[in-house]
Design a protein that fits this description.
Heterotetramer, composed of two GyrA and two GyrB chains. In the heterotetramer, GyrA contains the active site tyrosine that forms a transient covalent intermediate with DNA, while GyrB binds cofactors and catalyzes ATP hydrolysis. By secondary structure, the chain is of the alpha+beta class. Helices cover 38% and strands 21% of the residues. It is built from 22 helices and 26 strands.
């Protein structure tokens, strides 16, 4: 009671001091440094790379305006980045209103730039005018070099504040801008740039901007000749090549060799779409607005899907195909096996947030729909053989969906004989609180038995899985629900797949465990089983991954023992270090046990190495990049062998790490 009284008095005192002096007005770029996530999404690896994209956007906008043909991006030795273009160069003259160089205005003032002047840029990716100034604010060092009007202008900054004036350092016979920046280590949790991540974005931009040369160079490494990794991305076919690249990358067999390619324009909105069908069971759709990847879709995607459903349904009904096949068609049946890229250029796009994840312009829906509808109607009439293959696939998809719906209901319906409907193999925990409960999906009955003995029954449940589950990447959906191990996972977890607005969604409201831990042997077969289970979760229970509920256990590979002392080791380096610390060598002086499987450990060993929350290691499954994850699962678990062989050959050196 006495403490409560003191707290009340402190609160009253604090409230009485709340006045105008407590109001903070952030000036310049201070707001960006205080809340960087509002401007670039995050301060992790994703936000770090977003800085490069913001600078690239400015150069791309110069290309869209017809003034830039080459862009070079360099990762420097110190992990700073330089982006160089041959555009017109940022204006450097005196800004009349602010009485400072236009270069300094662009680099230090939010919402400053040429993107609001439609005579300068009809369309642009850097719409809000905060891109490069945000990069400046979040960089410990930034240097702008402008080649313009026969002279070279430079200015440097630190944390968004100029450290020099705009200086003229020489003459030039070219035009363009070079921005070099080093991300601020006090802002970002990750400072190492990924060559692969940047290469993926530049390749994407090359397809979206045919005729533009984009070069990436990494100065941090070099080969035996002293040459640095360098790639130039260039596309003559644009989206047509992009769609073909996606299916080839995913190892998917196409139905028709040449994709449908659509171009159109209405009310200053430019539309370009390319799409084709393959023999897989999934839709792969990428969408862009002014070169910005709209990962959450939007009105342009809605227009595309509306056109596909409308035209194919109309065509099938005109040929009486659906009635003869005795199937009821759903909009999702028209999207099975569809790979598409939808790109629009909109003068004044309305995005949700600075990170531009979803397009909101309502007028774009009808514009895209009309363009795609006309092109697809012509394609079907001119290619009757291809049209027949396509409609056969739609009918097969409808039949499979109907069968899957029935099979799914059978799995999800509670078993009246068992009451709870829980699988007989499940050794449940006593806790009923999902946040405190965890379930181990264990490879094999033997290891499952050991895990049941070693677990903490209060919060740890065990579900043994017999052998390798079905590879869902290559199976029709209704076959999945016939698999005993998959049925057991559905019922044990308490989740349901439901129909909502014509889409299948996973209902996790009754999820029984908030830690779902995959525990398999530390060998190649165990890694394969982990991949099979992860493929299932990614394809049919992705919200569990997105909410952070999926983990992978890390059982040890070795036990190094000398006398009464023993050390568990998770790789060969750990083993060698343990041998040395115990005073032995690889030939003898110590005992080395190589665990071939979980069943070789007794219950106590399994608990202390792999299941005890105090000492265990869990790897959380996350999705950093959906498109890359989608391509990887398709390539690793799909039908096509060559892409998988190439991946294995390229990554064989990492085998010890993967295992």
């Amino acid at each position: 009671m006495e403490n409560d009284k003191i707290n009340e008095e402190e609160t009253a005192t604090n409230n009485s001091q709340y006045s105008a002096d407590n109001i903070t007005a952030l000036e310049g770029l201070e707001a960006v440094r205080l809340r960087p996530g509002m401007y670039i999404g995050s301060t992790d690896e994703k936000g770090l790379h977003h800085l490069v994209y913001e600078v690239l956007d400015n150069s791309i906008d110069e290309h869209l305006a017809g003034h830039c043909s080459h862009i070079v991006t360099v990762i420097n030795e110190d992990n700073s980045v330089s982006v160089k273009d041959n555009g017109r160069g940022i204006p450097t003259g005196m800004h009349k209103k602010l009485q400072k160089s236009a270069l300094e205005v662009v680099m230090t003032v939010l919402h400053a730039g040429g993107k609001f002047d439609k005579q300068t840029y009809q369309v642009s990716g850097g719409l809000h005018g905060v891109g490069v100034s945000c990069v400046n604010a979040l960089s410990s060092m930034l240097r702008a070099e402008v080649h313009r009007e026969g002279q070279i202008f430079t200015q440097t900054y630190s944390k968004g504040i100029p450290t020099t004036s705009v200086d003229i350092i020489g003459d030039t016979d070219i035009t363009g801008t070079i921005i070099t920046f080093r991300p601020d280590p006090t802002i970002f949790t990750e400072l190492e740039y990924s060559y692969e991540t940047l290469a993926k974005r530049l390749r994407e931009l090359a397809y979206l901007n045919k005729g533009l040369h984009l070069t990436l160079q990494d100065m941090r490494t070099s080969d035996e000749k002293g040459e640095h990794p360098t790639e130039t991305f260039f596309s003559e076919g644009g989206l047509l090549e992009f769609v073909q690249h996606i299916d080839k990358q995913n190892g998917r067999e196409v139905l028709v060799d040449v994709p449908v390619h659509v171009r159109g324009e209405q009310d200053n909105v430019q539309v370009e779409v390319a799409f084709q069908y393959n023999r897989s069971y999934r839709e792969t759709l990428r969408s862009y607005v002014n070169n910005i990847n709209t990962v959450e879709g939007g009105t342009h995607v809605n227009g595309f899907r509306r056109a596909i459903s409308h035209v194919l349904k109309k065509y099938g009904e005109s040929k009486d195909l659906f009635a003869k096949a005795k199937v009821k068609i759903s909009s999702e049946d028209f999207r099975e096996g569809l790979t598409a890229v939808v790109a629009v250029k909109v003068p004044e796009p309305q995005f949700k947030g600075q990170t531009k994840g979803e397009l909101g312009n309502p007028e774009v829906t009808s514009i895209v729909s009309a363009c795609v509808r006309n092109a697809l109607e012509i394609f079907l009439e001119e290619n009757p053989a291809a049209a027949k293959m396509l409609m056969d696939k739609v009918i097969l998809a409808a039949k499979a969906r109907s069968a899957a719906s029935k099979a799914r209901e059978m799995v999800q319906r509670k078993n009246v004989l068992t009451g709870s409907g829980l699988p007989g193999k499940l050794a449940d925990c006593s806790s009923k609180d999902p946040e405190k409960s965890e379930i181990y999906l264990v490879e094999g009955d033997s290891a499952g038995g050991t895990a049941k003995q070693g677990r903490d029954r209060e919060f740890q449940a065990i579900l043994p899985l017999r052998g390798k589950i079905l590879n869902v990447e290559k199976a029709l959906e209704y076959k999945i629900y016939e698999n005993e191990e998959i049925k057991n996972m559905f019922t044990a977890l308490g989740v349901r797949i439901e129909e909502k607005d014509g889409e299948r969604v996973l209902n996790i409201e009754k999820l029984r465990y908030h830690k779902i831990i995959i525990m398999c042997d530390a060998d190649v077969d165990g890694s394969h089983i982990v991949t099979l289970i992860l493929t299932f979760f990614f394809r049919y229970m992705r919200p569990l991954i997105e909410n952070g509920y999926i983990y992978i256990a890390a059982p040890p590979l070795y036990q190094v023992k000398k006398g009464k002392r023993s050390i568990y080791c998770w790789n060969d380096a750990d083993r060698d270090q343990a041998i040395a610390s115990l005073g032995g060598d690889k030939t003898g002086n110590v005992g080395i046990q190589r665990y071939k499987g979980l069943g070789e450990m007794n219950a106590e060993q399994l608990w202390e190495t792999t299941m005890d929350p105090v000492s265990r290691t869990l790897r959380q499954a996350t999705i950093e990049d959906f498109e890359s994850a989608d391509a990887t699962f398709s390539m690793l678990m799909g039908d096509e062998v060559p892409p998988r062989r190439a991946f294995i050959e390229a990554n064989a050196k990492y085998a010890n790490v993967i295992i």
